[in-house]
Amino acid sequence: MKKRLVVAFACGVLFAVGLGISGMTHPSKVLAFLDFAGDWDPSLALVMGSGVLVNLVLFRRATRRGAPLLAPSFYLTTRTAVDASLVGGAALFGVGWGLGGFCPGPALVSVVTGATPVVAFVVAMLASMGVYDWMEEGADASGLEPEV
Amino acid sequence: MNHFTPVASTLGGLLLGVASSLLFFANGRILGISGIVGEIPVTTGSNRAWRLVFLAGLLTGGGAILLVDRSALAFASEQTVPAAIAAGVLVGFGTRLSNGCTSGHGLCGVARLSKRSIVATLVFMATGALTVFVVRHVLHLGGGAS
Fold first, then answer.
1. What value of ipTM does the predicted structure carry?
2. Nearest residue on chain A to B113, alpha-carbon basis
3. What CA–CA distance (Å, rounded) separates B140 from B41?
4. Model confidence over B97-114: pLDDT tens digits?
5. Which residue range(s) make up the domain with B126?
6. Total domains, chain B
7. Residue A121: closest CA among A97, A142, A91, A143
8. Predicted confidence (pLDDT) per residue in A13-33, tens digit
9. With an 8 Å Cβ cutoff, is A144 touching chain B?
10. Could you say which of A8, A31, A82 has the minimum Cβ distance to residue B119?
């Protein structure tokens, strides 16, 4: 239990530092990637590409082990359907991402600046997540990670 | 202001991969920010504890960046507060509805070759690019700031 929390904390720190080094904590850099008709900056593709490459190798290795090092099993979703929620949700997310240049990770990391637009984004994002949960009303509090 | 940063972005991306692989390898969890943070209010006990600790790590990392290199963080956003709020609402609701964001779907799910994640990633990339196109090249609003 304690070890798992240490790992979780370390992963949070590493992820934040990775976002900072990669330049993804700058919304302008994210928007420059999404701006294919403008002064295009392909940096984000390298961030995603190198991150996916590491995960491609290590996730496979982890699942081949059969179980994680510190937990009884992997927490993976059982969802497989490409449905309206998935596509519609991703579409809405993309519009918000394109408006602000922030996705959840970089926004949370940048909230330490205390800058008004960043704080406003994060508060709105968390409130909106809360509204979603309220609408779902515990329909999915199974403890299984619904991500992915 | 914006220029291609191949070395830093590749190194940073590798670190994102290491962090998400470590969380999966050790704890069996997917490093998806919207899922980890979004589930804090609806989970209990140890399932909530690790999420809070991860969030604390994320903020600590942000604080560390602030100390080492303030210029790595965005103080000025691209847009006004109302636009930031609108973006936040869309990002919050959209990521919860589709069960993931750039990290959970984009970095982890795509690497797991999950069909759902690959579709989600293509969709949010497409609507993101379309939004930037409309804002910058159709409406000619802002977008020049950094």
1. 0.94
2. A56
3. 40
4. 999 999 999 999 999 999
5. 6-138
6. 1
7. A97
8. 999 999 999 999 999 999 999
9. no
10. A82
